[in-house]
Fold this sequence. Notes:
Number of strands of chain A: 3
CATH class of chain A: Alpha Beta
Largest sheet of chain A: 3 strands, antiparallel
Helix content of chain A: 25-40%
Radius of gyration of chain A: 17 Å
Number of domains of chain A: 1
CATH architecture of chain A: 2-Layer Sandwich
CATH superfamily of chain A: Phosphoribosylformylglycinamidine synthase subunit PurS
Distance between the termini of chain A: 7 Å
Low-confidence stretches of chain A: none
Strand order of the largest sheet of chain A: 2-1-3
Oligomer: homodimer
Order of helices and strands of chain A: EHEHE
Amino acid sequence: MINVNVHITLKEGVLDPEGKAIEGSLHNLGYEGIEDVRVGKLINLTFDNSDRIEEKVEEICRKLLANPVIENYTYTIEDGVAK
Amino acid sequence: MINVNVHITLKEGVLDPEGKAIEGSLHNLGYEGIEDVRVGKLINLTFDNSDRIEEKVEEICRKLLANPVIENYTYTIEDGVAK
């Protein structure tokens, strides 16, 4: 069992309305000193084998999970213990 | 400048329709061997000082960012270089 964690974040300069909403709520709740909030996605994929895993994950990120025009992605691949 | 990364994931057993949709799309695109897909959130908070930071982040997660009934959260606090 292979565990892949994909982190998808908006590129710098791309507006993040969800982050701005959270920032506004934090100010309304009385939290001070928060300069910026950015929201991204965390996608966990479980593979049953490690065959060409890096190539597959790279392709899946580019084709389906991220929009490379406005988003960056990084991923970690962990070889888990079989269940 | 303090960088806080909050990872929010659905608890085990909680249905994840977004993850199921991605899983379906991956099968349609011809990717085999994917057993499970779970989608979570990645929230990056930038603080201007480290005053009571852990206490604040814990409270913010519990009160605003996560729904503790169905979601788990973890966070990392990084002391960045001041800009």
